Amino acid sequence: MDSIYFDYLILPLLIFMARICDVSLDTIRVIMVSRGYRKYAPLIGFVQVLIWIITITRIMENLDNWLTYVAYAAGFGMGTYIGMRIEEKIAMGYELLRIITRSEVDDLVRALRQKGYAVTSVAGEGKDGAVGIVFLILKRKATRDVITLVKQYNPKAYYTIEDIRFVADTSYL
């Protein structure tokens, strides 16, 4: 009785949880490599593969247990989701925010500078006439706050956000 309980309930649950950890770590590792945080990526990769080997070994030992397959696949899906949420919360790296607006940008620029953001603004020419262009390089964690300010001061502003892999001098930020 204990073997059935373990094989069909506990083991699939453990595989599901291990796969969540494995895939979440993989998501974080890939993002770290792509953003230039290469110190920690090998360590994360080591732990990730260790979890994967232990998990796949248990599945191979229980090939007749279809619940382990379902748990493995479900853990992959959930791990992908959780990995993205974790990355969203830690928000590593920098972004370039480019704001283009037809209305005056002085109030927005002033508000951003009062909040401590380094802002570059230039006058430009758009399809329908003069535009204000504002550039900010900021930490990803600050992006939502800045977008809130943009919407407050220039609700019809057009903006784009780009990931930046490397910032040479963060003293300006």
From TrEMBL:
<comment type="similarity">
    <text>Belongs to the UPF0316 family.</text>
</comment>
<feature type="domain" description="DUF2179">
    <location>
        <begin position="118"/>
        <end position="166"/>
    </location>
</feature>
<dbReference type="InterPro" id="IPR019264">
    <property type="entry name" value="DUF2179"/>
</dbReference>
<keyword id="KW-1003">Cell membrane</keyword>
<dbReference type="InterPro" id="IPR022930">
    <property type="entry name" value="UPF0316"/>
</dbReference>
<keyword id="KW-0472">Membrane</keyword>
<feature type="transmembrane region" description="Helical">
    <location>
        <begin position="40"/>
        <end position="60"/>
    </location>
</feature>
<dbReference type="Pfam" id="PF18955">
    <property type="entry name" value="DUF5698"/>
</dbReference>
<feature type="domain" description="DUF5698">
    <location>
        <begin position="27"/>
        <end position="84"/>
    </location>
</feature>
<keyword id="KW-1133">Transmembrane helix</keyword>
<dbReference type="Pfam" id="PF10035">
    <property type="entry name" value="DUF2179"/>
</dbReference>
<dbReference type="GO" id="GO:0005886">
    <property type="term" value="C:plasma membrane"/>
</dbReference>
<feature type="transmembrane region" description="Helical">
    <location>
        <begin position="6"/>
        <end position="28"/>
    </location>
</feature>
<protein>
    <recommendedName>
        <fullName>UPF0316 protein BZG02_20090</fullName>
    </recommendedName>
</protein>
<dbReference type="InterPro" id="IPR044035">
    <property type="entry name" value="DUF5698"/>
</dbReference>
<feature type="transmembrane region" description="Helical">
    <location>
        <begin position="66"/>
        <end position="84"/>
    </location>
</feature>
<keyword id="KW-0812">Transmembrane</keyword>
